[in-house]
Amino acid sequence: MPVLLGTGTAFDQAATGAIRALAADCVCVVADAAVARLYPDDVIRFAALGSSPGIVFVAPEGERCKSLPVLGEVTDACLTGGATKRSLVLVFGGGATMNVGGLAAALIYRGLRLCYVPTTLMAQNDVVPSMKTAINFCGRKNNFGTFHAASLNVVDTRYLHTLPADELRAGMGELVKNALVLGGDHFTMAERMFDAHARAALDDALLAEIVEAGIRAKLPALAIDAQEARAGMIFEYGHTVGHALELCYPAGVLPHGLAVCWRMRCCSYVAARLGVLHGSERVRHDALIQRLLPEALPAPLPTVTDVMFRVMRDGKRGRALESADECSCVLLSAVGEPRQTETMLSKFPATLIADWLRAQGLPA
Ligand SMILES: NC(=O)c1ccc[n+]([C@@H]2O[C@H](COP(=O)([O-])OP(=O)(O)OC[C@H]3O[C@@H](n4cnc5c(N)ncnc54)[C@H](O)[C@@H]3O)[C@@H](O)[C@H]2O)c1
Fold first, then answer.
1. Domain end marker among 142, 162, 182
2. Within a domain: 323
3. 236 lines ligand 1 (CB under 6 A)
4. What local confidence, expressed as pLDDT, does residue 333 receive?
5. Do 171 and 158 fall into the same domain?
6. Mean pLDDT, 10 residues at a time, over the chain (364 residues)?
7. Domain total for the chain?
8. How far is the CA of 97 from the centre of ligand 1 (A)?
9. Are residues 112 and 185 part of one domain?
10. Pair (119, 7) in one structural domain
11. Same domain, 175 and 130
C-alpha cells in the first residue's frame, strides 16, 4: 500500500512527483465541496498532473455524497470529460468522498487507477489502509460497493488543521477503537493524543505519528484478510449500532467516528451483561471513550424502535447465522482481546441493545 505521509514544501514536491509518475493522461479530481472551497489551489494543482487537462468534479459535502445519483454524476463527469483507461481518479476529501470516488474508480472501465488525498483524521488513518468503497443505498449504510486498492495515498497532515472540532473528535474515535481492540501501544497512543489535544498541542509531528499508528494498526489483519471479512472484522468494533445511530440523525449531525464511540459503549454494556467483559477492564474501556464523549447523544433523540429497525438490517447480518431476535457484533473480553469466533462476530439477543438504548434515555 503506497503511502506518502508528511507535510511542507518538500513533501508537496515529493507528492507532485509521485502523482506525475503514475503517468496519467488525465487526472479526474473528485473533491469534497468544503475541501474545494478551502484548498482551491490544490484542486487546480492536482488536476494539472496528467499529460492533458484534468477534470474536476465537486461532490456534495461529507456523507451527502454517498448516494447513487452522486455516483452517477461522478462517473458521468469522468466519462464525458474524456477519461480513458490511462486516466487517474484522484479523490480529495474525507472518507465519504473517498468512498464514492473510490467506487466510481472501481466501476469506470472495470477499474481506473486511484489516488487518495485524504483530508480528515478519520480518512487518513482508517480509510487509507482499506480497499473498501461504498455508497449508502435504500436507507442502509455502506451496502452498495466493492473493493478497489489505491495506487497512491498522499497523506498531508496540514489539512487536519481546518477540520471542524467534531470531525477531529470523530477521527479520534476511530483511534479509540484501535486502542480498545488492539490495546498495548495503541492504547498509549490514544492517551497521548488526548493529553496533547487537551493542551491544544496536536502539532503536525504528533498528528503524523498518530496517523501512522492508525494505518499500521490495520496492516497485520489486512495482510491475511484484505476484504475485512474475518481477521479484519475486528475493525468493525462498534459499527453495528454506530451505523444505525448515525443513520437516525440527519447527515453530519452524529459523525461516523463519534457514532462508533457510542456503539463501543453499548458493546461493553452487552459484553458485561453476557458475563464476557469483567469489572476493571470495562471501567478502563469506558474511561477512554469518556475522554471523547463527555456529553449526551444529540437531541432530538431518535426512538429505540427506529434504531433497532436499522440495527436489524445491518450489512453484516447473516454472517454469524443470527436468528430473527438476535444480532451480532465484535465483543471484547478485555481491552486488546477481541472475543474469538469463526467470523469474529458474537451473536446475542437483540433486546440487550434495546435495553442499552433505553438506558441512554431514548424514547420507545
Ligand atoms: N474502510 C472504509 O472505507 C471506511 C473506514 C472508515 C470510515 N469510512 C466512511 O467514511 C465516512 C466518514 O468519513 P470522514 O470522517 O472522513 O468524514 P466526511 O468525509 O463525511 O467529512 C466530514 C466533514 O468534514 C468536511 N471536511 C473534510 N475535510 C476537511 C478539512 N480538511 N477541513 C475542513 N472540513 C473538512 C467535509 O466537508 C464534511 O463536512 C463515513 O461514510 C464512513 O462510512 C469508510
1. 162
2. no
3. no
4. 96
5. no
6. 95 97 98 98 98 97 96 98 97 98 98 98 92 93 95 98 93 93 96 95 96 92 87 86 87 86 94 94 95 87 94 84 92 96 93 95 94
7. 2
8. 7
9. no
10. yes
11. no
pLDDT for the residue 70: 98
Provide φ and ψ at 116, rounded to 5°. Answer: -105, 135
C-alpha cell at 19: 502523482
Q: Hey, which of 30, 58, 157, 167 would you mutate to test ligand 1's pocket, going by the most ligand atoms within 8 Å of its Cβ?
A: 167
Same domain for 34 and 128, yes or no, is yes
Could you tell me if 129 and 14 lie in one domain?
yes
Task: Judge whether 177 counts as a catalytic residue.
Answer: no
Query: Does residue 320 belong to any structural domain of this protein?
Result: no
Q: Coil, helix or strand for 258?
A: helix
Whether residue 10 is found in the same domain as residue 146:
yes
Give the single-character DSSP code of 337.
E
CATH of the domain at 173: 1.20.1090.10
Q: Do 105 and 145 reside in the same domain of the chain?
A: yes
Three-state DSSP class for 250? coil
Q: Is 132 a catalytic residue?
A: yes
What local confidence, expressed as pLDDT, does residue 214 receive? 93
The terminus-to-terminus CA distance of the chain in angstroms comes to: 46
Residue 243 is predicted with a pLDDT of 83
For residue 295, give every residue at least 6 positions away whose Cβ sits within 8 Å of its Cβ, in sequence order, or none: none
| In-domain check, residue 331 | no
Full residue range of the structural domain in which residue 56 is found: 3-162
Spatial neighbors of 196 by CB under 8 A, at least 6 apart, are 202, 203, 206
Quick one: DSSP state of residue 129?
T
- Amino acid 271: pLDDT: 96
In a domain, 324, yes or no: no
Predicted confidence at residue 274, as pLDDT, reads 96
Contact 333, 277 (CB under 8 A): yes
* CA 216 to centroid of ligand 1, rounded, Å: 20
Integer CA distances (angstroms), 221 to 98, 130, 225, 235, in order = 21, 11, 6, 9
